[in-house]
User: Fold this.
Amino acid sequence: MFHIFTDIKQPIEKFLSICKGGGYLFVDGLFNEYDIEVRMQYCDNSNPISKGIWRSDWNQHSQSSVKNFLKGIVEYVEFEEVIFDLELPMNAAMPINKWTFKDSKGKTIITNGTHLISNKTLMTIKK
Assistant:
């Protein structure tokens, strides 16, 4: 769930420091296939528990920036789209909850109360 980190360098460095040579790291997150980094801040005033509290979440790191950061540090890094075939209905009682809808090709897409598409990607790193 690396999408909760604004800057993923420190967590990746920490995981790599405890990973043996030749070992693997498997990381899920929102890794953008385009060379675009997204940093999102929001305040959910629809819920009394979160009202007035600003959060930074659902950051989308570009695959190319992660690959550039890891170049020369690891043997390889790969990204694979996580197929989500479960239907999650929208829950009006939890507006920032995640739910799914189908795109024009019938693919299940995950979104949330901010209308951010949040399909996951699996990053595999071999140290």
